[in-house]
């Protein structure tokens, strides 16, 4: 059986931090702790007309992929509340296919 994990299409993340807040609320985490954390990269210019500016959600050791929610048929809290719909729970095979199609994605398993 293939492992499932979190696929992050970070080229679509807007940096709204909804995933962070949803995770904190779902898991009762303190304000300074996260199961998922959004980091800002840039902005900086690296060519005449090119800029680096992105947000990248990353899971932390406190992430459980909301196992109790998933057992009830629900999505993990971060996935459900992602406003840009850039977070998905997929199998390793689905992640490999998605990354082959568009490289600006991360796949994280627990």
From TrEMBL:
SUPFAM superfamilies: 4Fe-4S ferredoxins
InterPro entries tied to this protein: 4Fe4S_Fe-S-bd (IPR017896)
Domain 4Fe-4S ferredoxin-type: 4-34
UniProt name for this protein: 4Fe-4S ferredoxin-type domain-containing protein
């Amino acid at each position: 059986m293939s492992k499932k994990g979190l696929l992050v299409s970070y080229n679509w993340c807007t940096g709204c931090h909804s995933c962070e807040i949803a995770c904190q609320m779902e898991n009762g985490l303190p304000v300074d702790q996260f199961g998922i954390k959004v980091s800002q990269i840039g902005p900086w210019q690296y060519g005449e007309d090119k800029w680096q500016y992105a947000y990248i959600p990353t899971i932390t050791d406190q992430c459980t992929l909301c196992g109790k929610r998933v057992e009830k048929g629900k999505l993990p809290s971060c996935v459900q509340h992602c406003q840009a719909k850039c977070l998905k729970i997929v199998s390793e095979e689905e992640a490999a296919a998605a990354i082959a199609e568009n490289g600006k994605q991360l796949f994280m398993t627990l």
